[in-house]
Automatic annotation (TrEMBL):
<dbReference type="GO" id="GO:0005576">
    <property type="term" value="C:extracellular region"/>
</dbReference>
<feature type="region of interest" description="Disordered">
    <location>
        <begin position="114"/>
        <end position="139"/>
    </location>
</feature>
<protein>
    <submittedName>
        <fullName>Mammalian cell entry protein</fullName>
    </submittedName>
</protein>
<dbReference type="InterPro" id="IPR003399">
    <property type="entry name" value="Mce/MlaD"/>
</dbReference>
<dbReference type="Pfam" id="PF02470">
    <property type="entry name" value="MlaD"/>
</dbReference>
<feature type="domain" description="Mce/MlaD">
    <location>
        <begin position="42"/>
        <end position="116"/>
    </location>
</feature>
<dbReference type="InterPro" id="IPR052336">
    <property type="entry name" value="MlaD_Phospholipid_Transporter"/>
</dbReference>
């Protein structure tokens, strides 16, 4: 019994010595990887402009499945060449594109392969294949993303939205009054929708009147033309001349009826001036009917107002403090600060 215990102690001591002597060769890169479940059957080179902080051993994903791992990166004159190991169990189309992604802003970086949306040509990646830089995409640096986010927050956009909503709340009447107005408008629109026949008849009548002007355009133009004007002047002159001749007892002032000639000339000039209005009457009637059918009735059925722009006052000192507090909370959510 004693010899057996002694042998077990010597074995444990020998194992401890071997373990201590081997610690000098132990490193994180030599530890077994938890991602080694995917076999690496062949290698493919991907050419990137930059890879940021893409580590060796990062996952290579396609359609949500792991198809390989990053084996090494090498800097070149034109960018960075990334060598990845892929598995034969999940074939990758030769015309696929590659992009470096992160699940979260501060999460692990991985490499995603994206097959073409319209279908591939049938060829697959094989050992030694190269995906050129034209089909690879490098993500923007995290610092640029944080800078854009900080500019958005510090620029006052959130505060402007809050001020806009506060202004709208102050401008709008109380909810009780809004509901009363909406109820009244709803009843008016409902009544209008039930009497659209009257509007249709009115529009049809206006359309018929404008059509009658159009049908009589030649006669109207003839009446107010130069020949018509000359005719009316001649008739007026002859009529007044004969009537004044039949009434000599009125006196020498009315002899020949010459005093009526300027009045009739003015009347003819006024009629000639109104000729243009009669010429435009059909077009005016058509435009009015189109306005009622295309603008007034649709707006009465579905009234709405488009807000083109809203301006808010600049951010005050208290608003800046709130923006800084919101920025700190956002950075804590991202994990950038504690």
């Amino acid at each position: 019994m004693i010899g057996r215990r002694t042998a077990l102690g010597l074995a444990a001591l020998l194992a401890l010595v071997v373990g201590l002597t081997g610690c000098s060769a132990l490193s994180p890169n030599r530890l077994p990887s938890v991602k080694s479940s995917v076999p690496l059957d062949y290698q493919v080179t991907l050419q990137f402009a930059s890879v940021l902080n893409l580590p060796d051993g990062a996952d290579v994903m396609m359609n949500g499945l792991q198809v390989g791992r990053v084996q090494s990166t090498e800097t070149t004159d034109a960018g960075v060449d990334v060598v990845v190991g892929l598995t034969d169990d999940r074939p990758v189309p030769a015309d696929s594109s590659a992009i470096i992604r992160q699940n979260t802003p501060l999460g692990d970086t991985y490499l995603a392969l994206q097959p073409p949306t319209g279908g591939s040509g049938g060829e697959l990646l094989r050992d030694g294949s190269v995906i050129p830089r034209e089909r690879t995409t490098s993500p923007p640096p995290l610092e640029d993303t944080i800078a854009v986010l900080a500019y958005f927050i510090n620029g006052g956009s959130i505060q402007k939205i809050q001020d806009t909503m506060a202004t709208l709340n102050r401008t709008m009447p109380p909810i009780k009054d809004v509901r009363a107005i909406a109820s009244t408008v709803s009843k008016d629109l409902d009544d209008l929708s039930r009497n659209t026949g009257q509007l249709d008849r009115t529009l049809n009548s206006l359309n018929a009147v404008s059509g009658s002007f159009t049908d009589s355009q030649q006669q109207i133009e003839h009446v107010f033309s130069e020949q018509g004007e000359h005719y009316w002047k001649t008739v007026a002159t002859s009529l007044v001349s004969h009537i004044s001749t039949l009434l000599p007892s009125v006196g020498s002032v009315f002899t020949g009826g010459l005093f009526l000639v300027p009045l009739l000339n003015s009347t003819a000039d006024a009629a000639e001036a109104g000729r243009g209005m009669w010429d435009q009457a059909p077009a005016t009637g058509t435009a009015m009917a189109r306005f009622l059918e295309d603008t007034l009735i649709p707006f009465a059925q579905k009234p709405s107002v488009d807000i083109a722009s809203v301006q808010a006052p600049s951010v005050q000192a208290t608003g800046k403090k709130e923006l800084l507090a919101d920025a700190k909370m956002l950075l804590r959510m991202l994990g950038a600060i504690k």
